[in-house]
Structure formats: structure tokens, C-alpha cells
Amino acid sequence: MTALLVIIHVIICIVLILAVLLQSGKAADLAGAFGGAGSQTAFGPRGAQTLLGKITTVCAILFMVTSLGLWLLSGRTSSAVKNAPTKEVPAATQTPTQEPKAQTTPATAEKTEPKAQEPVKK
After folding, report:
1. Which of 64, 69, 75 is nearest to 1 (CA)?
2. How far, in Å, CA of 60 to CA of 6, rounded?
């Protein structure tokens, strides 16, 4: 189900991108740059919607619906890591945790352990 929805979602995305890129912008002429072509309305005159405009609207709605569907399906499916059975190690094979012994080199041994002075023989 999820794979089918992802394929539909990708196709809708491609169609939506193409529909948006093929449309000409509003007020694309030189008069639109200076506020011409319908100064009575906020976004210019609203004419009849073209075929590309209708395709864009439908694809945008379908894109949102498939996005929500994928989001809902992602919450229901669980990954294999979450459901993987855990192995318990028997207590006999477990080793107690011990702190590793600090290894001293001769240079550090002289610094940390003072040497006892031997009496001088005459």
C-alpha cells in the first residue's frame, strides 16, 4: 500500500512541477512591472482559468492528500529494528564489570612510586 502511494505521489510531484513551470506568470508584460493591467484588484484581473491552471490546482490538492496519507501510513508501520527479538545472555556467561588495571611504564612508575633510599656503605 505504501509503495503504491509513493509511486502516485512522485508522479503527482512531476506533473505539478511541469504544470507550474509551463505557466506564464501574471502580468508578465512590461506594463505589469509598473502596476498596470488591473490596478483595481490586488492581484490583477482574474480571467477564466486555463487548462494548466486547473491541472495545477488538482495536482496541488492531490499532493497534499498523498502527503497526509504517507504521513499516516508512516506512523502505523513499524521498522524491523523495533520488532526484532532481543537475545538475553545467560547469567553464567556474563562477566562482571571490572575496571581495567592501569599499566605503568618505568617512566611513570618512578614518578608515582618513590624509591626507598639505601643506606650508604663505607
Report:
1. 69
2. 16
Q: Is 12 exposed, middle or buried (0-12, 13-18, 19+ CB in 10 A)?
A: buried
Distance of alpha carbon 43 from the chain centroid:
36
Residue-wise pLDDT for 69-116, tens only, equals 999 998 876 555 555 566 766 666 656 566 556 665 665 555 555 566
CA distance readout (Å), 80 to 31, 47, 83, 85, 89: 60, 54, 5, 10, 21
Q: Are 21 and 75 spatial neighbours (Cβ–Cβ below 8 Å)?
A: no
CB 73 within 8 A of CB 2: yes
Residues 6+ away with beta carbon under 8 Å from 23:
50, 52, 53, 56
Joined together, the cell numbers standing for residue 30 give 512590461
